[in-house]
Design brief:
Residues 7-252 form the ABC transporter domain. The protein is an alpha/beta fold. The chain contains ten helices and ten strands. The chain has helices at residues 52-59, 82-88, 109-119, 124-137, 154-166, 184-201, 212-218, 236-241, 246-254, 260-277; strands at 5-16, 26-37, 41-45, 67-72, 75-76, 92-95, 172-176, 204-209, 221-226, 229-235. The strands form two sheets. The chain has a six-stranded mixed sheet, with helices on both faces. A four-stranded antiparallel sheet has the order 2-1-4-5, covered by helices on one side. The longest helix has 18 residues, at 184-201.
C-alpha cells in the first residue's frame, strides 16, 4: 500500500430519513473506514444493497454525510460546499455501470468529451487537442468525435465514458460496476485498459463490483461490504483466495467457475454456509 494516502475515510455514516409518520431513519453506511493511496486501486465488493454504491456516491458529494470524515489529500470534503465540489470535480471523477445510458445519445462523442473541458474554461483549440489525446488513450479512432454513441458497441461506449472521466486528469476515479454490463471478453479488454491508464497516469481507483474475480484482477487491496459495514479488508489475493469472514466466503462460493463438478461443489459449500448462518 502506498505511504501517501490520497483518500482517508474514517467512520463514515450515511443516513436517509424514513418515509411516513414516525418512520425510522435508514442508516445506509455504519461507520465505514477505508484508505486509498496515490496510484492504488481499492476493490469494493458486495451484493446489491450492501452499501458500496452509497459509499461511492458519498465521495462524489451525491449522498449525505451524517457522521465521520472524508479526507481527500488531507482536506475534509465530507461537507464541501457546491463551489468546493465544482473544484473537486477536477480531482475526483466517476465511471458509471451502464455505457448505454451514461452518454447523452443526442451528443457526438466530441461534444461529450468537450463538455467537462469547457466547464473548466478550456479554449476550443485546447479542448480539441485534449480530445485527440483522450481518444488515443482509450484506443478509439480520431473520427469518433463526429459520431453518436449509438454507433459504438458497449465496450467502445465504456471507453468513451472512461475518456470523459480522464478529461480533467483526475487523481481518483470512482468506478461503479464499470464492466458488469459487458460480456466476458469485452470485460477483460476494458479491465486491461483501466490498468494501462493507471500505469500511464498514476490515477487511483475505487473499483466497485459484486464480482470477486474482477476485483482480484484489478485491485491491490479489497474491502468487502455487508449491510453498510466493512466486514473484511486486506490484500486482494488473500481476501479473494482465502477469505476469513463467512459473508466473503459465500461471495467466493457464488462466483461461477467453468468446471461443472467444481461448480456443484461450490453450490454445496455455499448451501452449508447459509444453513450455518440462518
Amino acid at each position: 500500500m502506498s505511504e501517501q494516502k490520497l483518500l482517508n475515510v474514517d467512520g463514515l455514516v450515511v443516513e436517509y430519513p424514513g418515509k411516513g409518520f414516525r418512520a425510522k431513519v435508514f442508516r445506509a453506511l455504519k461507520g465505514v473506514s477505508i484508505e486509498i493511496g496515490a496510484g492504488e486501486t481499492l476493490g469494493l465488493v458486495g451484493e446489491s444493497g450492501s452499501g458500496k454504491t452509497t459509499l461511492g456516491r458519498a465521495l462524489l458529494g451525491l449522498a449525505p454525510v451524517t457522521g465521520g470524515k472524508v479526507l481527500f489529500e488531507g482536506r475534509d470534503i465530507g461537507h464541501a460546499s457546491r463551489a468546493e465540489r465544482r473544484r473537486l470535480s477536477r480531482d475526483i471523477q466517476v465511471v458509471f455501470q451502464d455505457p448505454y445510458t451514461s452518454l447523452n445519445p443526442a451528443m457526438t462523442i466530441g461534444d461529450i468529451l468537450a463538455e467537462p473541458l469547457k466547464v473548466q474554461g478550456k479554449s476550443d483549440s485546447d479542448a480539441r487537442a485534449r480530445i485527440r489525446e483522450l481518444l488515443d488513450h482509450v484506443n478509439l479512432p480520431a473520427d469518433a468525435i463526429h459520431r453518436l454513441p449509438r454507433e459504438f458497441s458497449g465496450g467502445q461506449r465504456q471507453r468513451v465514458a472512461i475518456a470523459r472521466a480522464l478529461a480533467l486528469a483526475p487523481k481518483l476515479i470512482v468506478c461503479d460496476e464499470p464492466v458488469s454490463a459487458l460480456d466476458l471478453s469485452t470485460q477483460a479488454r476494458v479491465l486491461d485498459l483501466f490498468l494501462q491508464i493507471q500505469q500511464d497516469t498514476g490515477v487511483s481507483y475505487l473499483f466497485v463490483s459484486h464480482d470477486l474475480d474482477v476485483v482480484r484482477h484489478i485491485s491491490e487491496r479489497v474491502a468487502v461490504m455487508y449491510h453498510g459495514e466493512i466486514v473484511e479488508q486486506g490484500d486482494a489475493e488473500q481476501v479473494t483466495r482465502d477469505p476469513r469472514h463467512p459473508y466473503t466466503q459465500r461471495l467466493l462460493l457464488a462466483s461461477p467457475v467453468p468446471d461443472p463438478d467444481r461448480q456443484a461443489e461450490r453450490r454445496a459449500q455455499r448451501k452449508a454456509l447459509l444453513a450455518v448462518g440462518s
